[in-house]
Design goal:
There is one protein chain. The protein has 150 residues and is α+β, with helices and mostly antiparallel strands. The chain has two domains: 41 residues, Arc Repressor Mutant, subunit A (Orthogonal Bundle), CATH 1.10.10.10; 75 residues, Alpha-Beta Plaits (2-Layer Sandwich), CATH 3.30.70.920. 37% of the residues lie in helices and 20% in strands. Strands 2-3-1-4 form a four-stranded antiparallel sheet. A hairpin with a 6-residue loop joins β2 and β3. α2 packs across α3. The longest helix has 13 residues. The protein is elongated. The model has no long low-confidence stretch (mean pLDDT 94).
Length: 150
């Protein structure tokens, strides 16, 4: 379980903003020795609080200028139907996030494609071909004034 104290809170905040910060710089920011800071970071990693580090890519420069959130309803509300849908969606590289949610549909997907034409192909050739899908609701992202993943 996470030991909640001001040092760990600052470590987590700093690493979430800059996962490449040098341990010496991080230690200086939080007021610990480099060895004490490193021990805390390693403990947070061992506990699974810090799951990993990643590069944040620019969607536009990567050729994925179109982003949409898609609600997907299933035709059957069974575990087998959910697992089959989840397995099929894992193969789609356009799907960047897949969340099982409550409400008027079962899944919320974050889709990234080159453009609307590419999304239309994904919509028809991928989502439209998954037999468990009964409804698709699309919300196109026009702007993201706040996105803590970036």
């Amino acid at each position: 379980m996470l030991k909640k104290d001001r040092y760990n809170e600052i470590i987590l905040r700093e690493l979430s903003q800059n996962g490449r910060i040098a341990n010496s710089e991080l230690a200086e920011k939080i007021g610990l020795s480099p060895s004490a800071c490193l021990r805390r970071v390693q403990e947070l990693e061992t506990q699974g609080v810090i799951k990993g580090y990643r590069a944040i890519l620019d969607n536009e420069l990567m050729g994925n200028g179109f982003v949409a959130y898609v609600g997907v309803g299933l035709n059957e509300h069974s575990i087998e139907s959910q697992l089959a849908f989840e397995q099929a969606i894992k193969l789609a590289c356009e799907v960047k996030e897949c969340h099982n949610v409550t409400g008027s549909f079962e899944y919320l997907l974050r889709i990234e494609t080159k453009d609307i034409k590419s999304f239309k192909l994904f919509h028809a050739d991928v989502l439209g071909c998954i037999s468990q899908v009964s409804a698709i609701t699309t919300h196109v992202v026009m702007d993201s004034p706040k996105d803590d993943r970036k």
